[in-house]
Amino acid sequence: MTKTPQKRKKGRSVQEMIGIKTFTKYGLLTSKGELLFYTVAPTNISVLSYTNIEIKIRHLMMVLSSLPDIEIACLDSAECFDENKAYLKTRLSTEKNEHIRRLLKQDTDMLDELQTEMATARQFLFIARLKGQKEKQVFDAANRIEKVISEQGFEVRRMRKPDVKRCLAIYFEASMNGESLPDTDGAQYFEVNDEPEKAD
Q: Is there a single domain that holds both residue 85 and residue 97?
């Protein structure tokens, strides 16, 4: 008796798993709607008076009241070295050769210095999620949201495609130059020939 070959299930791509479909004119299309990203310049509250901090909080509350569905994210704006440092720490604890131990210590110190320099390298984002809207509606919503945030005294800018790509690349630890990555993985290796092939 011959066994009928079972049809192999097609695995889901990483893109499908995280729900990203494609870039749009104003943001990023996902399985749960179109995302618009706004970057907000951080305020150093350590130099503000108690009264000014209260005012900033009130302004943020006004934004959240006007845009109740807005989402807030705080991300690294530069590469994080925690895993590298953990690896070096493990190597240091097991390494017997003094010369190599010295090199590992130098690497650890270098990463500590870099981490200190980039300790404040955070980016604060407002993220708007729009569902089932036409391009003109998205355009109007994108401008309205930016205006609402700006009117409350925040230094805000809607992120363009290169900004979003760089942000995603850092988040997924793919590259520090995400804006230069192709929209479609591997697209840079294909050359499209528009001329029809001639029959022999």
A: yes
- pLDDT tens, position by position, 133-183: 898 999 999 999 999 999 999 999 999 988 888 888 777 765 555 566 666
Output the furthest CA–CA distance in the chain (Å, rounded). 84
pTM: 0.64
* 131 SS3 class: coil
User: Could you tell me the sign of the dihedral formed by the alpha carbons of 139, 142, 143, 144, in that order?
Assistant: positive
d(CA 180, CA 189) in angstroms, rounded, equals 14
Domain count, the chain: 2
Residues spanned by the domain of 49: 13-78+121-173
Please, are residues 87 and 141 in contact by the beta-carbon 8 Å criterion? no
Q: CA of 185: how far to CAs of 78, 166, 198, in Å?
A: 22, 15, 30
Give the number of residues written for the chain.
Answer: 200
| Same structural domain, 42 and 54 | yes
Amino acid at 120: T
